[in-house]
Amino acid sequence: MPTHTITLRNGIEMPTLGQGTWFMGESFFEKKNEIAALQHGIDIGLTLIDTAEMYGNGGAEKVVGEAIAGRRDKIFLVSKVLPNHASLRGTVRAFEDSLKRLKTDYLDMYLLHWRGGYSLEETFEALEKLRQEGKIRSWGVSNFDTDDMQEAEEYDPDGNCCINQVLYNLGSRGIEWALIPWQKKRNIPVMAYSPLYQTRLLRSSGLVRIAQELSITPAQLALSWLLHQGTVPIPKSSNAQRIEENRKAWDIELSQEVLRELDRVFPPPTHKMPLDIL
Ligand code: NAP
User: Do 47 and 250 form a contact (C-beta atoms < 8 A)?
Assistant: First the structure.
């Protein structure tokens, strides 16, 4: 059975299944429902919450702030700085703004959302400063391909970069060729975003057939497969029933035979492919 937590290279424990928040905080009329959905997820053990200053222009962080009020200590909270804010001073400013919206005084993980104009050296200096001041427990990157990770390593000699959040799901397996092996060697887990390919994957006849044979849903199969790869999927749902469905992926054991069948339907890469991005 896939483990419910992993230990990051800095010794911090992190849940292996979380809740995404992209597209939350965009509509006043959806806010109540989104808060309730996240809280339901927390109640059933989905305490890792992934958000970003970008989502809903800060609106998603506000939704998360309300959802975690009174239960911050149970939450593993991840947010991200936009690349155009990721200078030495800009990162700290963006971070403080995120904290205000999230109504908290620390983050468990802070990520550079994707590479932009500022040097990694400068951004990492800011992230390290926040970590050393105890304002973030760990930091990492997002949308980094293997060459980006190699460059990142040059500016992170002590190995403080703890995670790379990238697009990964059964329909997009390119990172298995080079990026995942590179990260595995260094104990840097992949946090898998768009694990359902924003529902695109759920319409795959092969996935639907195998899920039916196992008496589970296509979403559960997609998430369970990611957990079996040792990655950390963060599906987004604003629906309590679908959140419960996704949570059950934690309790599913896939046999070698099923994993082989999934490889037949969704073949792994046979050569280096560029990183898929949404
Ligand atoms: P996703 O999680 O693959 O898919 C989300 C969609 O799936 C929503 O429309 C949701 O609708 C639906 N859904 C969820 N559970 C379902 C289920 N059991 N059955 C059927 N439909 C289901 O896509 P995502 O939101 O792009 O990715 C997840 C999270 O990753 C994001 O929310 C964000 O936190 C993060 N992310 C990061 C980056 C990055 O650049 N770092 C990029 C993209 C995403 P309902 O809400 O109606 O259930």
Answer: no
- Residue whose entry in the numeric block shows the structure tokens 């998360």: 64
Tens-digit pLDDT profile for residues 31-50: 999 999 999 999 999 999 99
| Ligand 1 mean position, distance from CA 184 (Å) | 25
- First-last CA distance in the chain: 30
Q: Which atom of ligand 1 is nearest to the CA of 111?
A: 41
Distance CA 244, CA 262 (A): 24
- The number of C-alpha atoms within 13 Å of 165 and in the hemisphere containing its C-beta is 27
Q: What sections of the chain are H helices per DSSP?
A: 31-43, 59-68, 88-102, 120-132, 146-154, 179-185, 205-214, 218-228, 240-247, 256-265
Active site annotation includes 193: no
**Nearest-10 Cα torsion for 198, 202, 204, 207:** 130
pTM for this model (two decimals): 0.98
> In terms of C-beta density within 10 A (0-12 exposed, 13-18 middle, 19 or more buried), how is residue 274 classed?
exposed
Mutate to test the pocket of ligand 1, among 163, 236, 276, 278 (most ligand atoms within 8 A of CB): 236
Q: Are 80 and 54 in contact (CB under 8 A)?
A: yes
